[in-house]
């Protein structure tokens, strides 16, 4: 879809400019899907419900935490498995009942 078509699809002026120059709709910001090439539109968003922040950029389902597979590029979802209490990084919500 061309930038112009995208803009008209968004309606009004509710658009977000990615650092890459791509234009997305404001409703696509923090919707859990990467619309900017570098996930920029999802950076800094609070993760909804049953998800955790991954790489400080994206949210992954917390059923993917400590499942033995690295879902985060840096493996943070597998990093603190088996540790207790303050082993978890600040801001990450890792519940005990995910198994
Ligand atoms: Ca998005
Ligand atoms: Ca995982």
UniProtKB/TrEMBL annotation:
<keyword id="KW-0677">Repeat</keyword>
<dbReference type="InterPro" id="IPR050685">
    <property type="entry name" value="LDLR"/>
</dbReference>
<feature type="disulfide bond">
    <location>
        <begin position="30"/>
        <end position="45"/>
    </location>
</feature>
<dbReference type="InterPro" id="IPR023415">
    <property type="entry name" value="LDLR_class-A_CS"/>
</dbReference>
<dbReference type="Pfam" id="PF00057">
    <property type="entry name" value="Ldl_recept_a"/>
</dbReference>
<feature type="disulfide bond">
    <location>
        <begin position="18"/>
        <end position="36"/>
    </location>
</feature>
<protein>
    <submittedName>
        <fullName>Suppressor of tumorigenicity 14 protein</fullName>
    </submittedName>
</protein>
<dbReference type="InterPro" id="IPR036055">
    <property type="entry name" value="LDL_receptor-like_sf"/>
</dbReference>
<feature type="disulfide bond">
    <location>
        <begin position="47"/>
        <end position="59"/>
    </location>
</feature>
<keyword id="KW-0812">Transmembrane</keyword>
<dbReference type="InterPro" id="IPR002172">
    <property type="entry name" value="LDrepeatLR_classA_rpt"/>
</dbReference>
<feature type="disulfide bond">
    <location>
        <begin position="54"/>
        <end position="72"/>
    </location>
</feature>
<keyword id="KW-1133">Transmembrane helix</keyword>
<feature type="disulfide bond">
    <location>
        <begin position="66"/>
        <end position="81"/>
    </location>
</feature>
<dbReference type="GO" id="GO:0005886">
    <property type="term" value="C:plasma membrane"/>
</dbReference>
<dbReference type="GO" id="GO:0016192">
    <property type="term" value="P:vesicle-mediated transport"/>
</dbReference>
<keyword id="KW-0472">Membrane</keyword>
<dbReference type="GO" id="GO:0012505">
    <property type="term" value="C:endomembrane system"/>
</dbReference>
<keyword id="KW-1015">Disulfide bond</keyword>
């Amino acid at each position: 879809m061309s930038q112009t078509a995208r803009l008209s699809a968004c309606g009004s002026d509710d658009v977000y400019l990615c650092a890459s120059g791509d234009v997305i709709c404001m409703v696509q910001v923090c919707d859990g899907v990467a619309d900017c090439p570098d996930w920029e539109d999802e950076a800094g968003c609070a993760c909804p419900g049953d998800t955790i922040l991954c790489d400080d950029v994206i949210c992954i389902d917390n059923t993917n935490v400590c499942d033995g597979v690295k879902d985060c590029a840096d493996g943070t979802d597998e990093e603190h498995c088996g540790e207790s209490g303050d082993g978890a990084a600040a801001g990450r919500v890792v519940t005990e009942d995910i198994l």
